[in-house]
From TrEMBL:
Subcellular location(s) of the protein: Cytoplasm
Protein family according to the UniProt entry: Belongs to the pyrroline-5-carboxylate reductase family.
GO terms (BP aspect): L-proline biosynthetic process
Catalytic activity: L-proline + NAD(+) = (S)-1-pyrroline-5-carboxylate + NADH + 2 H(+); L-proline + NADP(+) = (S)-1-pyrroline-5-carboxylate + NADPH + 2 H(+)
Protein name per Swiss-Prot or TrEMBL: Pyrroline-5-carboxylate reductase
Entry GO CC: cytoplasm
Domain Pyrroline-5-carboxylate reductase catalytic N-terminal: 4-99
Species of origin: Enterobacillus tribolii
Pfam families, per the entry: F420_oxidored, P5CR_dimer
Cited HAMAP family: P5C_reductase
Role this protein plays: Catalyzes the reduction of 1-pyrroline-5-carboxylate (PCA) to L-proline.
Amino acid sequence: MEQTIGFIGCGNMGKAILGGLIASGLVPAQHIRVYNRSADSVAAIVREYGVRGAADASEAARDSDVIIIGVKPAGVTGVLKQISGVLRPETIVISIAAGVTLETLQGALPERQKAVRVMPNTPALVNAGMSSITPNEYLTQDDTENVVRLFSSFGKAEVVPESLIHAVVGVSGSAPAYVFMFIEAMADAAVLGGMPRAQAYEFAAQAVLGSAKMVLESGKHPGALKDMVCSPGGTTIEAVKVLEEQGLRAAVINAIQHCMQKSEVMSRG
Ligand SMILES: NC(=O)C1=CN([C@@H]2O[C@H](COP(=O)(O)OP(=O)(O)OC[C@H]3O[C@@H](n4cnc5c(N)ncnc54)[C@H](O)[C@@H]3O)[C@@H](O)[C@H]2O)C=CC1
Ligand SMILES: O=C(O)[C@@H]1CCC=N1
């Protein structure tokens, strides 16, 4: 029998997962039930995706085999307490919240409930997500494989230990924001060079997409790929020199370190 999925809290990230999951065809829209805080937004999601709506969190959870909690971190334990009464022992509860540990999830759920901490990212919406999967000890291997399959249906998904969650937040969960800033800055430069703005976004984004594909598909070190672009005495090395002078690498490392530290602070509650 096909599984049913309940979404509780379906904003930016929840919708990216919902859209990715439906586009993949892995779970039919009619097997998905969504509850969001505002009834209007539930109605809009039902209209847009063809899923079923729910009047409250318990209704979204009651018949679901897998529940994805997509509310802000501060709201997660409240939602878990609301749905605890309708969970079956085999129900898998997934939280995508930054800074909410498995220990916190378990503390708000019935004893021995199957719980998973997932850190996705918004490119899920375009079938290019990257998600980490951290199951608690009550998931069977089949359960974990099922969760990996769900999140792989709109990108990549890998099981990671909870100790790596801060690195995951820094390098993929939050990362689209830095990459969008980089693309925006590249496009601004192209506009400075006279290119129309829409065309500048297209050229910048395609350059980033192609470069990322080369890293993933060539097996070559990013430094070696960079060297392939830098002709001796040419244009690229001029730009590389400025990026080094202005501390691009240090800025990126520092930014991600701050991101990881924030994730750690949030995890302490
Ligand atoms: N935005 C992102 O790129 C990522 C977000 N996350 C995590 O995803 C979670 C949601 O983040 P966003 O989607 O950005 O936030 P958002 O504010 O866009 O979405 C949250 C949704 O939950 C709803 N909501 C709030 N309280 C509720 C309740 N008690 N019951 C039902 N619905 C409720 C809100 O109406 C809203 O639609 C956060 O915990 C965040 O840490 C994780 C990875 C990436
Ligand atoms: O900014 C945040 O806290 C969330 C978690 C990862 C991406 N967005």
